[in-house]
Amino acid sequence: MLPKAKNADFNKRRQAIAGFSLIELLIVVAIILIIAAIAIPNYMRSKILANEAATVQNVRNITTAEVIYSTTYGIGYSALLVNLGGTGTPTPTNAILLDDVLAQGTKSGFTVTYASSNPDVNGRPTAFTVNAAPVDVGHTGNRYFFTDQTGVIRQSVSGPATVTDTPI
Questions:
Q1: What is the DSSP string of the chain?
Q2: Which residues contact 58 (CB under 8 A, 6 or more apart)?
């Protein structure tokens, strides 16, 4: 049998290596929750800003594709957004100027609506408008975007942007 002094030392060492107490574990969990509460809103905000920046670039790409389309084919602007996409041999209905995802109208959490207008005497569109709206306001984006054949991109936070809204 061990003397009492040696037995007490053994019990202290055993308790020291036994593990964490419940209070210590709760403190660690609380710290993790505090860090998550700070990080998640910042992540969501940065994701929204990234979606909006990508959408502004997508709207620019559509405007550039329209200028190239009009110059290449000499028939005005495209009648439909989908005409600017495609694969294979370029034609007026399959111009291969945009990626197919954007040409279908939804990309980076935004829905893009395209409309050609103002046909000339031959029925060729001489104007177009592009509106980009968040798929889920507050989650995929907070701003709406607009552009037309002038190439000026405009924004609105209260609803679909128009030609009278603030330029970017």
A1: ---HHHHHHHHHHHHHTS---HHHHHHHHHHHHHHHHHHHHHHHHHHHHHHHHHHHHHHHHHHHHHHHHHHHHSS-S-SSGGGG--SSS-BTTB---S-HHHHHTEETTEEEEEEEEEE-TTS-EEEEEEEEEESSBTTTBS-EEEEETT---EEESSSS--TTSEE-
A2: 102, 107, 108, 110, 112, 132
Percent of the residues in the chain that have a pLDDT greater than 90, as a whole number: 85
Each residue's pLDDT tens digit, 30-79: 999 999 999 898 999 999 999 999 999 999 999 999 999 999 999 999 99
What is each CA distance from 11 to 8, 17, 20, 21, 24, in whole angstroms? 5, 10, 16, 16, 21
Residue the block writes with tokens 């389309």:
69
HSE (CB half, 13 Å, CA atoms) of 88?
7
Whole-prediction pTM value? 0.80
